[in-house]
Amino acid sequence: MVLPSPLPTDPSGPAERPASMRSHPSAHRPAASHQHAHATGPGPRGWVDAGAPVERVQLDERSWVDVVRGLVPDAERVHHEVLRATPWRQGRSFRYERWVDDTRLSATVAGSRRHPALAAVETWLVRRYRVRFSGVVLTQYRDARESLGFHRDTGMTWLDDTLVAVFTLGAQRSWFLRPDTGRQRFADDDELRDVVDLAPSGGDLLVMGGACQRDWLHAVPPSAVAVGGRISAQWRWASRRGEPDLSLRHRDAWRFTSAR
């Protein structure tokens, strides 16, 4: 797989993100294997592209990310409809071992409250990975400065075998992955040499799997150039195998978009 060139990022931003978050030309480019998506049934037909290829990026022996470009061909229409119909709220997130105010808007939808395209993507996920999800969390990035620093989705508690699917609507933004080596996450001199930038566009799906939430960090950095709005739709599942991670208050962390 040929990964896209890293997008320009902004070294400034809110306190919760790194002071020098910028892409680096020597970003790690792991090898990828190509697979083909399973055909969808009558329900999702018309929203998802049954022939969209699935590219498996093997991050290490136990961690991987599947990249599905153009899974939803009519992504621009879906973006406008989801943006308009979603009951967005300003919430708080349990990040970096404390509650912080969100710079982004968020919402949680399930069942008939989902846009049919989101329901179709969820059906695609269920059929491919053979697991069930409890709903989809939506996050809105309204401009280039709204971002999310390096983190793991520790709220699932069991991190040895998880699935985290991220579907993008709207503008293309950098989307970073890097191994969690225990370094300071917001170092001013961080040159991001070990970063993989998957940079999803509208209609693209990323699925992190295996031990990715235990051993890798992901982030959406601020952009150095003006970009339109982006919506991230996220589904999460954990097998509950292995040792639970008890380092955080997981009951609170799971509600990472609490409307407090």
TrEMBL record:
Annotated stretches, region: Disordered: 1-50
Q: Which GO terms describe its molecular function?
A: dioxygenase activity
Q: Where is the signal peptide?
A: none
- Give me the stretches of Pro residues compositional bias: 1-11
**What GO biological process terms are annotated to this protein in UniProt?**
DNA alkylation repair
Q: Which residues form the Fe2OG dioxygenase domain?
A: 132-239
Q: What PROSITE patterns does the record point to?
A: FE2OG_OXY
Matching entries from SUPFAM superfamilies are given as: Clavaminate synthase-like (SSF51197)
Q: What is this protein called?
A: Unannotated protein
